[in-house]
Known about the structure:
The complex is a heterodimer of chains A (236) and B (287).
Chain A: E1 21-26, H1 35-44, E2 57-62, E3 65-70, H2 82-86, E4 92-94, E5 101-103, H3 113-117, E6 124-125, E7 139-140, H4 146-149, H5 156-160, E8 166-170, H6 177-184, E9 187-188, E10 200-203, H7 207-210, H8 215-218, H9 220-234
Chain B: H1 14-38, H2 46-67, H3 88-112, H4 117-142, H5 155-175, H6 179-208, H7 212-222, H8 224-252, H9 258-282
Helix pairs in contact in B: 1-2, 1-4, 1-5, 1-9, 2-3, 3-4, 4-5, 5-6, 5-9, 6-7, 6-8, 7-8, 8-9
Amino acid sequence: MSEELRVSPIETRGKAGTRRYAMVVDTRRCIGCMACQVACKAEYDTPLGVNRTWVPYKVVGKYPTVKKQFLPRLCNHCDDPPCVRNCPVEATYKVEEGGFVLQRYERCIGCRSCMAACPYNARFMLPANRTYTNITNVVDKCTFCFHRVTQNLVPACVQTCIGRARVFGDINDPTSEVSYLVARNATQVLRPEEGTKPHVFYIGADRNQTEFGRDAYRQREVMELDRTAFKNHFNI
Amino acid sequence: MGDYVWFHDVSWHASYAIYFFVIGILAGLSFLSYGSWITPALRPLREKAAYGSMILLAIGGLLLIADLSQPQRFFNVLNPMYLNFTSPLAWGALNIVAFGVCSVLYILELRKAPDSARGKLLALITALLALGLPIYTGYDLTVHQSRPVWNTPVMPVLFVALAIASGSAVGSLLSGGNEGAQRVLREYMLWSTAGVGVILISILGTTNYGGSAQELTFMILTTGTIGTIFVGFGMLAGTAAPVAMLFLAHLRQQTSGLVVAALLILVGSAALRYALLMGPQQLQTLY
């Protein structure tokens, strides 16, 4: 990104001498095995009913040319994150070196303002009771596996992806694989109109999933039945 | 069919709408208490409005704190090392605390010397701080750029108009048979509720002509359960009906029927706050 396109001092993409991590998700390679979701759950012991990453799918096309279209989702680690702006106590913050958007659990008051601000539903409230940790009743999210990346490992979801659909790296480094993929392929980001400058890039994402579908209204009754079953299942 | 959708929960639940409702009434009552220093007809309301406002502040404050998932950390918002001034919530917390302190000082002054110059000054400061409360709650919604309806600049103005309308309605109920006070409150209720109606129409208009998210939110706000609450209770029963009643009373210079109009305004302002909070969150839960 050129200097002229950087509108906020918090943005670090294209800033000389600074790393800016990004993820490229090649949806053409995603087979919907959900291994990334499982790896993430295992890495963080994420409770039932909430996810740091999830893989929704839609069946698109008309018979006989139908296919399942996957769209792996996670925090977009925006260059200009609205959640950081909205947190009243700076419990959520952006790390300049790497561009990680992280959460200070001990400071979070649980006002859910960051959840309301996030256009990607990437944030969730941890339940009151957890077995292996006392981090409860605060907002949580994907960290781009900060603890792994700072030890020169890739995020757990990237490590486990069987089809190499997820690629992670420094987009400020022109020789990195993510820079190459973004430069050589047509990529999409989710909801670019919000000006958040997300750093999860998709190759081959289907518009049925990246945009608000009109069927969201037409299928509301069906959706409501599903939603009720979903809530009952997870006791939300 | 066969799609796998991960349903997300709404961020803010109904308790937040009750908080908006309570905070709006207490701000309106503060305006009335200050108004009593300017308009003699409102003099009987001065103490009642000040005490009512204080009681509602206690209720609203408890609601706000109880709504946090970490209520014991509420004081983090007042910690200067933590405060993030880009968040309207931080400004709101400071505003509430300042309003509370001024309200206590004002009430103490009212008990000591009900008509002193210092009392008038404290009433003015309290009313100005009270004005900040609906403004900050409006900004609380406005700053969320990805939410249709919330992300409109008129939201703080709407909340101020709702505060004047619902505060005046409670003032009207408190005034009972006081003809002079009811005449003044009839005008306050009429024009503030009419203002609410104009703002709602402009919000609905711009939402309906927006992008797909706006259009879908418009549909959610105008149909089904949310539609019944927003259009039925909020716009028709809670805005259009009391405006018509109050306008007729204004033309005939009557004060009868104001209790019904006040109750309708209160029902409407509660319904509007609920629908405006919950409706625009629905679409996002499917994304």
